[in-house]
């Protein structure tokens, strides 16, 4: 017997209420902008952080306008007290994926460091392709 599970539009893992809480927020933008998905793990809904991440990633479209999709994962680790905020940004461009990960004391610092690293990666890729 084969079980088939439908693919949910909103990803919400609830194995145990205290173990993992993941909230995914996707906002539709114009046709020329990339689709940006923001995932907050082990945290509540923070609209300010979400908007900050979206604006930071949209600034990368000035450097390389062919970005298709972007996934921003923001995580909070309870075991490390100094650098307990993690950010991971994955960019998808035609025929290539770029990934940047950073840990720090605040989400904004982690997002900025990831965007800087992705900017350098996109610049190298752009010079290599042209």
UniProtKB/TrEMBL annotation:
Gene3D superfamilies: Ribosome hibernation promotion factor-like. Signal peptide: none annotated. CDD domains: RaiA (cd00552). This is Ribosome-associated translation inhibitor RaiA. It comes from Chlorobium luteolum (strain DSM 273 / BCRC 81028 / 2530).
């Amino acid at each position: 017997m084969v079980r088939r599970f439908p693919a949910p539009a909103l990803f919400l893992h609830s194995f145990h209420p205290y173990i993992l809480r993941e909230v995914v927020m996707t906002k539709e933008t114009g046709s020329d902008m990339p689709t940006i998905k923001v995932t907050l793990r082990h945290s509540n809904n923070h609209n300010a952080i979400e908007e900050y991440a979206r604006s930071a990633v949209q600034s990368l479209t000035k450097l390389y306008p062919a970005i298709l999709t972007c996934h921003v994962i923001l995580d909070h680790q309870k075991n490390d007290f100094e650098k307990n905020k993690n950010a991971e940004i994955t960019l998808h461009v035609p025929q290539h994926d770029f990934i940047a990960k950073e840990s720090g004391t605040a989400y904004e610092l982690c997002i900025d460091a990831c965007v800087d690293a992705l900017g350098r990666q996109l610049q190298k890729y752009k010079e290599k392709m042209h």
